[in-house]
Amino acid sequence: MIYMDTVIKLVLGLGALLAVTRLLGKKEMGQFTPFDFIYALILGALLEESLYDEKISIWQMLFGVAVWAMLIYIVEVLVQKNDSIRKLLKGNSVRLMKDGELDFKKMKKNHIEMEQLRTMLRQQGVFSLQEIRDLYLETSGSISIKKFSYVEPPTAKMLKMEVEDEDPTILLVDEGRVKDDMLEFIGKSKEWLQEQLDKEGYPDPDSILYAEWSEANGFFVKTYY
């Protein structure tokens, strides 16, 4: 019976984590604020205590998770509707650099070291502060940058060139499996796909690691070998 309770708690705990993730919205881990991290941390603690403490029943665990999920939902609604609450709980973006001038006081206030800042810049492909015009520290702890115009690559508009927009490529074969939903999305059939792969010299979809297709560029196929 103890083992069955553990299994049930684990299954329900997984469901609770998924539900809270949905409440937080479609965010990547890098977009989580410290407050979002606290949500998950406390939920994990609730589940851990109920899992290892036999005195806590499944219903008590569900009640605790439900109350916590409700609190999360209420806070998220308040944050969306009230700027003052949002600033208090999640903070604001901070401008660390303006017109190429770094604000050391704001860096110190936000506990950002110079080498730490340079590391974050390198992760965005920037290897010198000379290239940066404006730099923001976001609420998630990541940075956003705007380079000086003279280091930005020229655009088609700058060169007065007319360039047609292209649709994104569609993945039609994924690790040997034909993507029926993608074929339906572009209005094509399996027979059409097989015919096109035959023309490209790939008659066996099972040997294909991935096959991309676009209206403008056709197929790009990569096999396992």
TrEMBL record:
Keywords: Cell membrane, Membrane, Transmembrane, Transmembrane helix. The keyword NAD does not apply. Pfam families: DUF421, YetF_N. Signal peptide: none annotated. It is a multi-pass membrane protein. One of its GO terms (cellular component) is plasma membrane. Transmembrane segments: none annotated. It comes from Siminovitchia acidinfaciens. This is DUF421 domain-containing protein. Belongs to the UPF0702 family. Residues 3-77 form the YetF-like N-terminal transmembrane domain. InterPro entries: DUF421, UPF0702_alpha/beta_dom_sf, YetF_N. It is found in: Cell membrane. Its main location: membrane. Residues 80-214 form the YetF C-terminal domain.
